[in-house]
Amino acid sequence: MTLPTGINIDEPRYPQNTYVNRAKHFLIVTNPLNVFASEESLNKAARIVKDYKAGRPIPDVKSEDELWKAKYLYDSAFHPDTGEKMMLIGRMSAQVPMNMTITGAMMTFYRSTPAVIFWQWANQSFNAVVNYTNRSGASPISTEQLMTSYCMATSGALVTALGLNRLAKNLTGVLPKLVPLAAVAAANCVNIPLMRLQELKNGVPVIDESGKEYGSSVTAAQQGIAAVTLSRIFMACPGMVFTPVLVNYLEKKTTLFKRFPWANSPIQILFCGFVLTFATPLCCAIFTQKASISVDSLEDDLKQKIKKESPSVKTVYYNKGL
């Protein structure tokens, strides 16, 4: 079989104009098994993608399916704008194994102050890596800004978690177990905008359908960062809501934890992993990664520039990040 030419691998295989297609795309990109891909496999995938784009022959790729397999492996490890290989725990394919461990531990040890401090710190450390790794474009970020964001997000999460723990200490049932979710939501609202502060200051590049770049827009950056923050909160909700409900049921209706007290944490971690396997891609798919914005919604100078250079362009696009 001959590899067909003319396939646009700069765009996802499935058109991203519907939620179902975006979900199919992210189910592949966030596949936890991609974490175990070897450096050799990743470099081979990068070579295949670059060779195909350059029109060079690829003798070891015989079909379109093989080409897309290489492209998705490439997308799981390399930044879409800069082409740089992302650090392992910052990749979207690492979300499930990392989050299932941290989230399960946060919900298991939510009543212990030292444990709350440790696991909220671990969660914000991980979030800082993810947010930095998946920022939009080649946005530079200073060490000072990185540390400011990290410290403020961690502080916000700790204040929320410890404060709500105190308010909920006399409560029973599911409600006290939802405290970690409130802390995670509060921290995301701080961490993501601060980690991407350069985009809020300088904007993100906007392009038309043909790929022509017109400049950078702060308005587009604001919309993109708000969408990412919401999707991250939505991503955390299923695991951090359904898991406490399951544990509450097992505590009240069964003797499992009385007979096997050690089973509490593994059950929460494994159940979180199961939920996150689906919640991560489904919530990434809520908003398109290549987001659109009306030209009329842009800053006046950029809007006038686009209308002067390309009067027919009514909508431009930008990478909102993940």
Automatic annotation (TrEMBL):
Residues that span the membrane, as ranges: 225-247, 267-288
Bilayer topology: Multi-pass membrane protein
Lineage: superkingdom: Eukaryota
Keywords: Amino-acid transport, Membrane, Mitochondrion, Transmembrane, Transmembrane helix, Transport
GO biological process: serine import into mitochondrion
The keyword Membrane appears for this protein: yes
This protein's GO CC annotations: mitochondrial inner membrane
A Pfam cross-reference name: SFXNs
InterPro entries: Mtc
The UniProt record lists the keyword Manganese: no
Molecular function GO terms recorded: monoatomic ion transmembrane transporter activity
Cellular localisation: Mitochondrion membrane
Predominant subcellular localization, coarse grouping: mitochondrion
Coiled-coil region: none
Family (UniProt): Belongs to the sideroflexin family.
Name of the protein: Sidoreflexin
Biological classification of the source: Eukaryota, Metazoa, Ecdysozoa, Arthropoda, Hexapoda
